[in-house]
Amino acid sequence: MSAPAYTVRTGTRASRLFGWGLLALLVALVAAPLWADRGMIQDLFFILTMLVLAQFWNLLAGYGGLISIGQQAFVGLGAYAMFGAVIVWGVNPVPAILLGGVAAVLLAIPTAFFAFRLVGAYFAIGTWVIADMARLIVSQWQVVGGGTGTSLPREARADMWGVETIAALFDMRAAAARDVLAYWLALALAIATVAGIYALLRSRQGLALAAVRDNVEAAGAVGVDAKRMRWSIFLVAAFGTGICGALIFLQNARIAPDAAFSVVDWMAYVIFIVVIGGIGRIEGPIVGVLVFFVLQSTLSQFGAWYLMALGLLAITVMLIAPRGLWGVISDRTGLQLFPIQRRLYGGRIAKETP
Amino acid sequence: MIWVDTILQGVLLGGLYALFAAGLSLVFGIMRLVNLAHGDLIVLAAYLILGVTTLLGLHPFLAVFLAVPLMFGIGYALQLGVLNRVLGDDILPPLLVTFGLSIVLQNVLLETASADSRRLPAGETAVEALNLGPVTVGLLPFLTFASAIAVIAALQYLFYRTAMGRAFRAVSDDPVTASLMGIRPASVFALATGIAMVVVTIAALYLGMRATFDPAIGPSRLIYAFEAVIIGGLGSLWGTLAGGVVIGVAQTVGAAINPEWQILAGHVAFLVVLLIRPRGLFPRAVD
Amino acid sequence: MTALLETSGLKAGYGDFQALWGVDITLAEGGCAAIIGANGAGKTTLMRAITGVLPCAPGMVRLDGAKIGGQSVDAIAKLGIAMVPEGRKLFPSLSVEENLRIGAYAGRSGPWTLEAVFELFPILREKRAVPGTSLSGGQQQMVAIGRALMANPRVLLCDEISLGLAPVVIRDIYKALPRIREAGASVIVVEQDIAQAMAVADEVHCMIEGRITLSGAPGDLSRDDIHAAYFGVAET
Q1: pTM for the complete prediction?
Q2: Which domain holds residue A172?
Q3: Lowest mean pLDDT among A70-79, A321-330, B168-177
Q4: Number of domains within chain C
């Protein structure tokens, strides 16, 4: 038997070119405090955190088939756990972010236990109910301000790890240095999220995930444990979303239940980003968040009309291009920046002789 | 005695939630569609009734007769123009489109009707009470509950005793074979959503007369409706009444203990039922 | 004379898979045609294209000379083409009587009423209140035929009505066919059972891989011809 004359690759030429471009972009982003003013750093922070939330929701809905509309539970609880750890235990806010992720997972376990009993669309509303419960319960927590919320204590803000170093390094005031710190953390989180999800999708588990999404019974028949797969996806997404929530409110320095558990901010925007960009693709949320940012910065002064337009845009995209802007681009050009499909190059598969 | 009263109030409140839930259940039963904008459509209907009331100076009970055909038309057009295009095996498109619709509706109402809380002017009806032996109940809660029973009985009759109901069930079973009978599934779906919007308008009438409403309250009405549907058992119309009553009683009892626990108690009741009876109290035998 | 139902050059398929490659058949008013062929020959696809379940070009199917190809399924049903689908496809949430009544949804009047169907298949009268899917296979087939008759069709398409039934049951069901034709319907039966098809039809069409390979009156066709056309064995 001779060696096969074909090779299986997942990379494309565009994806390798893109690799170098990405590296340059990352260097520029890490160095952003050198070239960007404080407002721009805050904008970049916003883009990166929304990207993280969108990537995790895309992982759930686009790949895992778990259409949750209760992710605001994990944003809110992650943020509140961070605030609680800082205020009650005096933990430094930076490591407390991790506790936000842990708290989100602790909430995700019972959430999954209940919501997985509901099929399809009812799963979506089930997660929403639990998010509403989380908001109502947190509103009773008086140490962190109950229904009206609270601010991050002055001492905690001053002692935040790394702030002094950053302030000295760039010769800026503490408030600006805190923004840089939050921005770098968001950048690290976004890179870890995208890289982690990409690695997951290219792995054996990633293939299993696609199999589960396409057909639960068939996937079961070929030995994929659909239940375990869904559990792990749900918990991973909760962890990442919780960390992101804690980070968002670390930068915000003020928290209230309605803001932390906001359906519009952490769910509607996130869903619109993924739908407009392209669901079920890693590139989708990236394209979506950029479009969203442009719309947000040019139209948000129109208030309700802006949200309405955003909703109409998402509905239109869903009706005429259900795989989003990236789907359209990719179909036209064959472009793939994060290739997941395995492609066959060279050789040929022998035809069965009749 | 105070507890008897509390529970009775809860049962009557359950009638309102059953009205919220009946439309949701009807649409899901026929086309497996969960409309995330259901709550916002209730609020839209409340504003429509309010508009008619203010413009023509009619009592809400009369204004509803003008709002009903309007809402029927809105539902019919929405289903035919938008929702029929996203029905299919994949539940993602209908969910995302109706979620988008929910946000759009909330903001249209916010822009046109402002964020102020409004109330339907019910006049004397709002304060009258009925003396039922040992307990006294408000006329309005009583009417709400009676309407819920009437609406569900009417839907039940429509569904199981009429040619239209047969077509509904046939399309729900198998749309392709149903179309071989000369039934047009797209029209049947539009009709079903139109009817659901009629129920939504009746729900909006009582919602608006009993309490204040504003453009943002839709999603929580969707949640109560959803809880009632799941507790009752998917596809069971009378089950939605039972589900509504469970949520209503849980909420009033919760509120009697601590006013801040009202909504939370409803959610807890929902989770408890989900835990012990995952298929609801009255699951449909054939599914 | 124009045929009641005619397909000409009918091509249809599922997505990228073409299953019919230009099928020509005609059905005369009052006639009974049989389509025979092995599994996968395209018989059911042909029925689905005629009823509009699968799309095709307008001129490919004509009823009374009028182009009806590619119209919506419900519109074609209202023109008087009724189908007894393969696998019966009764509505599980409807009782026997409701299954029959829904057949009349198209609103065409004619000899077939609930009473007439009960006379044709008396057992259904006894079972009228039970769910259609709780009946035996043969009784379910009677409901499916009755349901199609309730539309008072001009053309009745019967797709594999003998599939999976015991011979004695098949005989009972085919006994109804003459009465259905007497009442005015023209019939196309799709069959795998050659003998059954030859016995009832006045024209037989044999299909292989999406094409008609042989057509003719049963009396004019020899067993060998049919055998060759059915199994695709090349004539030497």
Answers
A1: 0.90
A2: 6-340
A3: A321-330
A4: 1
